[in-house]
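# step 3/5: fold
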Amino acid sequence: MLKNMIKSAAEATGLTQAKAKEAIGIVLNTAERQGSPLSEAIFRKMPGARTLSAKTGAEIGADTSPIARLIEQTPGGRRYIGEGMFTNLHKAGLGHDQIAKLLPSISGYMNMTYGMDAFGHIGDLVVADMAGAAGKSAVAA
């Protein structure tokens, strides 16, 4: 199934399958580090996705300490990790157009294959609770 998502992303972006796999790994690792509930849903449904995320995290030097993971799940940490995702995608050789095509290809594949339609846009995967956290902050203030 992961191979099919990689193939679908490669076709959508014009990337090689190797580059598409690297890019998907970056996106999955970002979502996992931010504690996105949708990343956990992907990991449960798609064999190999968690392994790809972990392998990619090791390759890009993502911190794996428990304290770092907690910090990455704060609003500021999520923003920092989200920005880092785009930096890492650029380092992997993707341009803006390819990134713009990659992100919807992931959500489209998950919708078509698993019926997961919770991906309104990639922000739902990468920064899933940012809007809710912002709203809660505004109410508390």
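# step 4/5: annotate
The chain has one domain: 2-140.
# step 5/5: archive (pending)
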